[in-house]
Amino acid sequence: MFPKVKMKRILSSILVIGVLLLSACGAPTTAPPAEAPLTPPSSTTDPNAEEAEIQETVKSFWDTFGTHSYAYSLKFIAVENEVETLNTLSLLYDTLIDVTRIENVDSISISGLRATAVVALNTQVTGQVLTVRTPLVKQDDEWKIVLEEVTLISETFMPADVKVTAAQICSDYETNRVAAAVKYEGRKLVEVEGEVLSIKRSDFGDISQLMLGDSKIRHVDCFFRGRDKSQVPIGDTVTVRGFVQDGLIYPSSGEIQILMGGCSLVK
Fold it and tell me: pLDDT tens across 123-140, in order?
């Protein structure tokens, strides 16, 4: 038999384990409100330990959402919840998956099992910078996004790398196709101004094709997702931003067709 002292220690250990298990089972399953402030540290709290915990939370957020899963979460929001200001992100991930990155995490507040992050997203092709407030909940030791509660804080645009008219870009490709490709193609953000010649649904799924130019022989074809594009009146002069994919020249007909993807209307 065990000595009495040892038996007491064993029973004490079992009691402690039992209390911990009961505490875990009784842990709250619902999260407090997203905007709840951080609880001020008590006088017995180690500031260094608290800072380390916050940094670990930020790292956990970054590791989880600084990836394609976060991008597709935003795409889901744009499609399912019809947040119009996020619709351009949906197209970008369909055309060039790596163009959007998390620019920075401005702030993150923690309250129990819930956190709120303020994140700036830079859509590098269209130059759109969205700052969103992202509620998170901690489940199974992972921070998970609350899709339906993501809200837009602000929206800005970076300046375009190149601004040109539809007539000028067609002329540049006609004069020297190689030089024009160097000037316009790649990761350059290009703004093109021109008259709307036609609008139609593309053959590539739920994407609209808007034709700009001074004639249907020399034109810029812009591809982008969005129901609002069908509301642009034919004959209006508009400015579209995106990236140039190619410039096609048809010798038999003399037609010049410039292809642009990831496009959005400049408001």
Answer: 554 566 666 676 767 767
Burial (0-12, 13-18, 19+ Cβ within 10 Å), 192: buried
Task: Write out pLDDT tens, residues 201-232.
Answer: 755 555 677 888 888 889 998 877 554 455 67
Checking if the pLDDT of 103 tops 60, the result is: no
In 10 A of CB 94, how many CB atoms? Answer: 17
Largest CA distance in the chain: 102
H or E stretch covering 47: helix 47-65
Q: What is the pTM of this model?
A: 0.49
> Residues 32, 34, 39, CA angle at the centre, nearest 5°?
65
Angle at 182 between CA 179 and CA 187, to 5 degrees: 160
Token pair 């020297």 in the structure block, residue: 176
Domains of the chain, CATH where assigned: 47-157 (3.10.450), 162-265 (2.40.50.140)
Q: Please name the residues in contact with 32: beta carbons below 8 A apart, sequence gap of 6 or more.
A: 111, 112, 113, 114
Contact 126, 159 (CB under 8 A): no
The Cβ of residue 48 has, within 10 Å, a number of other Cβ atoms equal to: 8
What is the structure's pLDDT at 162? Answer: 92
